[in-house]
Amino acid sequence: MKNREAGVLLPLFSLPGEEGIGTMGKEARAFIDFLAETGNRVWQILPMGPTGYGDSPYQSFSAFAGNPYFIDLETLKEEGLLEEADLEKERFKESKEKISYGLLYDLKHKILRKAYENWLSKGGNLSALLEGRSKENFDYCLFMALKDFFNGIPWLSFEKPYRDKDQATIEKFLEEHKQEVGYYAFLQMQYDKQWQALLAYAHEKDILIFGDIPIYCAMDSADAWGNRGLFQFDETGYPSSVAGVPPDAFSETGQLWGNPLYDWEKHKAEDYAWWCKRMEYCLNQFDLLRVDHFRGFESYYAVEYGAETAMVGEWREGPGFGLFQTIQKHFQKEELPIIAEDLGVITREVEELIAKTGFPGMKILQFAFSDFENVYLPHMLVDSNSVYYTGTHDNDTLRNWFETLSDWERGNVYHYLSRSQNDWNAMTELLIKTALSSISYLCIIPAGDYLECGAEGRINAPGTAEGNWQWRLPKNAFSEEKKALISDLLRTYGRFHSPAPQK
Q1: SS3 sequence, 276-311?
Q2: Distance (Å, whole) CA 436 – CA 415
Q3: Is 292 designated active site?
Q4: Rounded CA gap, 410 and 402, in Å?
Q5: pLDDT over 90 for what percent of the chain?
Q6: Does the global pTM surpass 0.90?
Q7: CA of 186: how far to CAs of 2, 134, 196, in Å?
Q8: Which of 331, 401, 404, 438 is deepest in the core (most CB within 10 A)?
Q9: Among 72, 341, 342, 449, the one annotated catalytic
Q10: How many domains does the chain have?
Q11: Is the pLDDT of residue 39 over 80?
């Protein structure tokens, strides 16, 4: 896809609805309809894995599993696995405007367990269900059952035979807790079924789903527990170093992510088999794939395990182009639908790696106004092989960003757009036009920017522990007037997509 096109960034969890969080049900299909109607081609979402403490989609219990919160309960009702009274819609009302993950944890799993019990009572084949999972997905189901057994504690704190995956211990656990492992396998079966149905619906409408893959796995994940040898753990069984980034524009003390770091030599020795499986899983789920923190493949920032901030760390060599050569060989494709998140500390070596892969990078309008030779300004772009954004999920909304700029930087915005301060109220639309006018082949506008949301519409503020990943799109947020405006903007800047004729 190299035609001039446009899309909208909206996490699936931000969709409206009556189940406390966005799901793969009717509201997701309605959003796809909106995209098609307005001439957008792409729906960009965030990682879809099951989330744990902190609720970040970038800290998932598995790189090979879907988030059960996204399972649509209405669909389960239509399949005869739930009754209307089971849905408890009244109790979900407190999450209508902002997601309450505590409520989801308590309530949605209770409802999903009822669906599982009904599935079993209707003759569901538990053994076939478990046997039908991939090894990686089965490890996730087993891992979650173990976490329930140990009251939710991180796997590093499991009793030693469970922590170290002693074969006899694990086999006995499986024998005694088969139904509990089966619950998580049931959720994955339902997730897969609903996601593939939604993906098919998007393709019917000629809409592409733009997914996201975190570079790292979470510390408390089935990936780290089940494949400890592929990560930097020391002889004690604990990590020696963890992931983060040094101080930057987002955080004065850096960002201490705390993820386990890969042992790249071991991955290379296994011909990057785990990474090939991971990419295969993702590219079966999405049409396009943003790879988060791409610079970590050239060199990555390592912080000593136990440090309180990321201020002190060191850069270490990553796998480089060899990893992507292997992945290309695995798929037997020279060109993969990958977008490199190339933000942050970008060195000449990182630029060379991205150029070698041929992957498009990202350009962010909110980063553009420090001076008039800033590489993110539309007139400074020399190559269309990039994706242009007003902002990402990590940025403030466009409106609040502009309103909180320093006088000097805001003056640069006015000057660049040849506008006076009297145009204050029109600035969001003008900035969106600026992004759409860029030569980048794809331009993505966050839904909150089209709606001119203030600070309340921010998805994530890096470096903060609370209040993130909660924003929900109001029901019927896009008026007919707004939809007409979006369509007009896309036509004006040559990005309006007319769906391909149905065969």
Answers
A1: HHHHHHHHCCCCEEEECCHHHHCEEEEEECCCCCCC
A2: 19
A3: yes
A4: 7
A5: 87
A6: yes
A7: 39, 13, 16
A8: 438
A9: 341
A10: 1
A11: yes
The pLDDT score that the predictor gives to residue 482 is 97
For 460-489, letters b (16+ CB in 10 Å) and e give bbebeeeebbbbbbeeebbeeeeeebbeeb
Q: Label the pairing between strands 361-364 and 338-340.
A: unpaired
For residue 98, tell me if it sits in a domain: no
List the catalytic residue out of 394, 403, 429, 452. 394
β-pair type (42-44, 314-317): unpaired
Two structure tokens written together for 328 = 């290309």
DSSP three-state, residue 471: strand
> How far, in Å, CA of 475 to CA of 278, rounded?
35
341 is catalytic: yes
Domain-embedded: residue 33: no
Write out the H or E segment, with its range, that includes residue 317. strand 314-317
Report residue 354 as tokens. Answer: 């991205």
The four Cα atoms 471, 47, 451, 105 give a dihedral, to 10 degrees, of -20
Torsion of CA 114, 120, 124, 127, to 10 degrees: 110
What would the mean pLDDT of 282-299 be, rounded to a whole number?
96
Query: Which one of the listed residues 292, 351, 403, 409 is annotated catalytic?
Result: 292
Q: Which residues have a Cβ under 8 Å from the Cβ of 124 and sit 6 or more positions away?
A: 186
Residue 322: inside a domain, yes or no?
A: yes
Q: 280 — phi, psi (to 5°)?
A: -60, -45
Sign of CA dihedral 434, 437, 442, 445: positive
What is the amino acid identity at position 345?
Answer: V
The answer to whether 394 is a known catalytic residue is: yes
What DSSP letter does each residue of 370-416 carry, written as one string?
SSTT-TTSGGG---S-EEEES--TTSPPHHHHHHTS-HHHHHHHHHH
Does residue 476 lie in a domain region? no
Per-residue pLDDT, 503:
52
The domain of 345 spans 227-358
3-state SS, one letter per residue, for 213-277: ECCCCCCCCHHHHHCHHHECECCCCCECEEEEECCCCCCCCCEEEEEECECHHHHHHCCCHHHHH
How many Å apart are CA 67 and CA 413, to the nearest integer?
40
